[in-house]
Amino acid sequence: MFFFTLILPTLAWTQNADFAALFNQGTQHYAAKDYEKSRDAFAKALELDPHNATTLTNLALAQYQLGKKPLAVGLFRKALASDPDLSQARSGLKFALGQMDVKDIPHQIETYETVRRKLLAPVSQTAYLITTALFLFAAGWIWIGFMGQRRRALADETSLPGVPIIGSLLGLGFLLSITLLGLKIYDQSIIRATIVEDKVSLQAAPGDNQATLLDVFGGMEVIVQNENAEWSQVTFPGSITGWIKKSAILRTN
Question: Which end of the chain is more exposed for a tag (fewer CB within 10 A), N or C?
Answer without folding.
Answer: N
